[in-house]
Design a protein that fits this description.
Elements lengths: L37 E4 L6 E4 H20 L1 H18 L1 H20 L18 H34 L22 H16 L1 H20 L11 H4 L6 H37 L5 H21 L1 H26 L2 H22 L8 H28 L6 H32 L10 H10 L4 H31 L8 H20 L3 H31 L6
Antiparallel strand pairs: 1-2
Helix pairs in contact: 1-2, 1-8, 2-12, 2-17, 3-6, 3-12, 3-13, 3-17, 4-5, 4-8, 4-10, 4-13, 4-14, 4-15, 5-11, 5-13, 6-12, 6-13, 6-17, 8-9, 8-12, 8-14, 8-15, 8-16, 8-17, 9-10, 9-15, 9-16, 10-15, 11-13, 12-15, 12-17, 14-15, 15-16
Length: 554
């Protein structure tokens, strides 16, 4: 690294695609120019600007995966399920330990002097207001997941905890309850179920996103490297990141991002279809899913063409308002007092149970820790290139302390409130004798709970709109991220490329749903999480080393 004085000439000011730092920053001394290995052309008047190796090999791998899944659905599903089961059985400790490291590092950086460093240089200013920034953080990170699991996860953990533990002939537990369960104790079962749910949607997943996002942001906006995953490895690989080692890292990032994203889009499509069937008696099935994904992808393409400032930002803010209205409605017409008091009680239960839920060793609740926690951690990590790069893209101008505090605490708090409101409402309905949600498929459970509240048709319709708009913002944001990686780190690549990736995302989801490959797709997303856990751990080393060389604000 080249330590330059504040008034040194900016040798990277002409780099294409990533803005030069504003004010003091410690650029990495490299002759590489962003986009220098790109293929640029304008066939039939359509501009393209792509990194040949990353784009070509990513496309071939994706095409091969889709073809094999369509041609051999049973065999591919079995292979990916086998990989997921092996990871669950053998690598749970690794995922849990790694996630703990990400949380600890994030909290340490907040309270140390390194937190004063500003992303984009000492004089950089934020590109978005707090409202716009928070909206995009929330919508891009977990929007579809909160809609899908907001009712089902607390309700499921409550039932398994209340049922107590059971042991098989081999002496191992066969139940799915978290920790030691809470047999025949409704109050304790509720507390444990909410603690377990918050554990999966609170600090740990957002610490995963934060480490990836901060690593990408610092090495791009402060060090002058491309906004791609390969840049995180510069402290280890040096100039070799411009060759095949770097190409392989970015190809893996594209693969993980696409299939992690497609898994979430598949979940969103299923819930939107279930909501339309529940509300309007529209027949479900493959045809409805295909039409739904096609229509939503078309809307996402319109948003892509509009750009981040007008497209993703506006849709994210619309969704933030709709989500807030739905949340407030459930709080005020549901068991309001229980939700209000439960918010703080659940936070307390989360803090109390956190050391045990995050313990990576000597766990006897294998079904819960492997089937739930390992799945979530691997899924979040497979999604981390997408969410991390998008967060990095919209967070220029924030200090490290401001960035980490916002990324960790704001969405986590919203997640706690959301899960408390919907989970408490569902559990209270069950206690009062309504078993409609408990006995329904996961995509329908949210609408079953809303059906027991006033204005059910209106709120169910809002729920469908929320799922669809979360789908659009995820597709839009994912296209932006994948295009950035396959364009060699440029964040201002031609829009037709983003449209291409938006179409590809929809086409993959449709092809895999038609071919019956959604289960294999979900397993592939989990399998992709394992190598990216190593990437994140390297990112921990890289970000500390990178931040220590940066000038600190006052």
């Amino acid at each position: 690294m080249d330590n330059k004085p504040d008034n040194a000439p900016d040798t990277h000011s002409e780099s294409v695609g990533v803005p030069a730092p504003e004010g003091a920053a410690n650029l990495i001394d490299t002759d590489y120019k962003i986009g220098q290995d790109n293929y640029q052309a304008a066939p039939m008047g359509v501009n393209i600007d792509i990194h040949g190796a990353v784009f070509a090999f990513s496309s071939l791998i994706i095409l091969a995966f889709v073809v094999l899944t369509l041609a051999l659905p049973d065999q591919s599903t079995a292979w990916f399920d086998g990989a997921k089961n092996w990871i669950n059985n053998n690598m749970t400790w690794f995922f849990l330990l790694a996630a703990n490291i990400f949380v600890v590092l994030s909290l340490v950086l907040i309270v140390t002097p390194l937190g004063k460093i500003r992303i984009g240089g000492a004089n950089a200013t934020p590109d978005f207001s707090y409202l716009g920034w928070f909206s995009m953080l929330f919508a891009a990170g977990m929007g579809i997941g909160l809609m899908f699991y907001g009712v089902s996860e607390p309700l499921t953990h409550y039932g398994t905890a209340l049922g107590g533990t059971s042991v098989g002939e081999d002496g191992l537990r066969t139940d799915w309850a978290p920790l030691g369960a809470a047999a025949d104790n409704p109050a304790a079962a509720y507390s444990l179920s909410m603690a377990a749910t918050i554990f999966h949607w609170g600090l740990h997943p957002w610490a995963i996103y934060a480490i990836v996002a901060l690593s990408l942001a610092i090495f791009a906006y402060n060090k002058g490297l491309p906004l791609t995953v390969r840049s995180i490895f510069y402290p280890l690989l040096g100039e070799r990141i411009w060759g095949w080692p770097g190409h392989l890292i970015d190809i893996l990032a594209v693969f993980a991002t696409l299939f992690g994203l497609a898994t979430s889009l598949g979940i969103g499509a299923q819930q939107a279809s279930a909501g339309l069937s529940h509300l309007f008696d529209i027949p479900g099935g493959t045809t409805t899913l295909v039409l739904l994904i096609t229509g939503i992808t078309a809307v996402a393409i319109v948003s892509i063409v509009a750009g981040v400032d007008k497209g993703v930002k506006r849709l994210s803010e619309i969704n933030m308002v709709l989500a807030f209205l739905l949340l407030m409605f459930v709080i005020f017409v549901g068991p309001t007092l229980l939700i209000a008091t439960g918010f703080f009680k659940n936070l307390g239960a989360y803090v109390t149970e956190l050391p045990f839920l995050s313990n990576p060793f000597a766990r006897d609740d294998a079904n819960f820790s492997q089937g739930w926690t390992t799945f979530y951690w691997a899924w979040w990590i497979s999604w981390s290139p997408f969410v991390g790069m998008f967060i990095a893209r919209v967070s220029r101008g924030r200090t490290v302390r401001e960035f980490l505090a916002a990324v960790l605490l704001v969405p986590s708090t919203v997640s706690v409130l959301w899960m408390t409101a919907f989970g408490t409402t569902a559990i209270e309905q069950l206690k009062n004798g309504f078993e409609g949600a408990k006995n329904s498929d996961l995509p329908v459970q949210l609408f079953e709970v809303l059906s027991q509240l006033p204005l059910a048709e209106i709120t169910s319709f809002i729920g469908i709109v929320l799922v669809i708009v979360f789908f659009v913002t995820s597709s839009d944001s994912g296209s932006l991220v994948i295009d950035t990686i396959t364009a060699g780190g440029k964040i201002d690549a031609p829009k037709p490329q983003r449209v291409f990736w938006g179409v590809i995302e929809g086409a993959i989801a449709i092809a895999l749903l038609v071919g019956g490959g959604l289960a294999a797709l979900q397993s592939a997303a989990v399998a992709a999480g394992l190598p990216f856990t190593v990437v994140l751990l390297v990112g921990c080393y890289a970000i500390v080393k990178g931040l220590m060389s940066e000038p600190r604000g006052k």
